[in-house]
Amino acid sequence: MDPCPFVRLLVGNLALKIPVASKPSRCGVHPVSSPCFCKIKLKNFPQQTAIVPLIPPENQFPDGQQPHTLAASFHLSKADLEKLAGKSIFSWKPCLKIAIYTGRRGTTCGVNSGRLLGRVSVPLDLAGTESRASIFHSGWISVGKDAKGSSVQLHLNVRAEPDPRFVFQFDGEPECSPQVFQIQGNIRQPVFTCKFSFRNSGDRNQLSRSPSSSRSWLSSFGSERERPGRERKGWSVTVHDLSGSPVAVASMVTPFVASPGSDRVSRSNPGAWLILRPGDGTWKPWGRLEAWRERGSNDGLGYRFEVMSDTNGGMSADGIVLAESTLGTGKGGKFVIDMSGSGRSTPASSNSPACSPKSSGDFGYGLWPYCMYRGFVMSSTVEGEGKCSKPTVEVSVQHVNCTEDAAAFVALAAAMDLSMDACRLFSQRLRKELVQHQDLLG
User: Fold this and answer.
1) Which site from 16, 22, 142, 214 is most exposed, i.e. has the minimal number of CB atoms within 10 Å?
2) Which pLDDT score is estimated for 62?
3) Does 127 lie in the same domain as 208?
C-alpha cells in the first residue's frame, strides 16, 4: 500500500511579553490582570483560536517552568499545498497570520469582546515539506503595525513536517456492505469488503473464534436492554481482506435506547460499539466507541472513543480516551483522533471537532502514559442525517504496520458513520437496511 503525501503545519510555544506602563493609561494593558488570546489563520482553512500566556518582560522563553504546548495545527494534502503555492510567478508566498487580542474570548451582543493588540505574519515556504521538516520561525517577534519599534513581543514556533497517510474510501454506505478502496492520487484500488449484519442477543459467541473467551469480556463492555420498539441493537460490520478473511469487526454491544419520556439517546445512557481485531485465534477488543444525541440549540451527535488497555496480557474494561466531542447532525463533519497537542483541544470548526489527551510529546511536553499513538492518528468523514454517506478515512502511516491495523480504523469509521443513524430521533424512521424484518412487523 502506497501512502498519500500530507504535511502538518504546527504552531506552538506561544507566549506574550507586554511592558508594564509606568503611568496608568486608558489603553494600557496590565500583563497580569488582562487575559490574552489569538486567532490563527491560514488561507483556505478554518480559523483556530488559542490562549496566549503572559510572562514577565524580564523572563526568557522557554524556561523550565513553561510547558511547551501546541496552539494550532493545519493538515495539508497535496492539493492544499498546490493551492497555497499558486500557479502564478507573481504570487506571494503563503503566510500564517496571527491576530493577538486582550480580554476574554467570545462575543457579547454580536460584538467581539476582545480588543485587538496587534498582528504578526509568518511567511511559509512549503516547497519540499512533503519529504523534509522545515522550521519557519522559532523565537520572539514584535507585534503591531510598527513592528520594529513595538515593545510588545510574541514568542512562537512554526514548523512543518511530513505526515504521509493511507487514504481509504467506502464505495457505498456501511449498511449496504460496500467495498473499500485505497486512494493514491487518481488510482483507486480495492483493499477491503464490508459485511453489514444483525447480531441477535443470543449470538454473542459468534464474535469470537473461541466461544469460552467471548462471554467474559463482552459482559464487561456491553449490556442487554430489552425495550421492544424503543431501541436499535445488534448492528455489526465485519471487514474482510481481499482473500475473504475477516480482519476487523465493529459490533454494537450496547443498544441505542431512547431515554424515558424522550425520543433520543441521552448522554447519560449512550449506545456503544466494540471494535475488535483478530489475535491468538480469537477476537480481541481494541477500542470502544460510545455515541449519544446532544440536547440544546446545537443539536449534535456526541461521541467518545477509547482504546482498551492490555494489562498482564488480558483486556481491561478501563480504556484510555483518545477522542471526545460533537458532530453536527445537519452538516456532519469529521471524526478525528489527533494527538498533536497537549491538553484537550477542539478545532475552531464546529463541524470537525477533536479532542487530544495530555502530553503528546510533539512539542517536547513528555509522553502520554500507556499510549502508542502520537501526532495525527486518523480521521473519517461523517455525513449529516439523511445524506448519502461514503466515508473517506485517513490513517497516519506511523500507525499502520499490517492489514489488521488499517482494517481496525476502517471498522471504527463504519461504526462512527452508523452512529449517526443509531442516534436519530426515535420519531424518525430508519432506512430498510438498518431495520430487522421482525422490527418492521412490530
Assistant:
1) 22
2) 61
3) no
Is there a single domain that holds both residue 297 and residue 417?
Answer: yes
Q: What is residue 141's three-state secondary structure?
A: strand
C-alpha cell at 441: 412487523
Task: Reduce the secondary structure of 242-292 to three states and give it as a string.
Answer: CCCCEEEEEEEEECEECCCCCCCCCCCCCEEEEEEEEECCEEEEEEEEEEE
Q: Specify the number of domains making up the chain.
A: 2
Beta bridge partners of 277: 284
Verdict on whether the full-model pTM lies above 0.90: no
- Residues whose CB falls within 8 Å of the CB of residue 52, separated by 6 or more in sequence, listed in order: 14, 15, 16, 36, 37, 38, 71, 100, 154
Question: Do residues 197 and 35 lie in contact, with contact meaning Cβ atoms separated by under 8 Å?
Answer: no
Q: Are residues 104 and 199 in the same domain?
A: no
pLDDT, greater one: 164 or 299: 164
Per the structure, the complete domain to which residue 181 belongs is given by: 165-441
Return all residues near 62 (Cβ < 8 A) that are at least 6 apart: 13, 15, 68, 155
Q: For position 361, what pLDDT does the model report?
A: 41
Which has the higher per-residue pLDDT, 132 or 349?
132
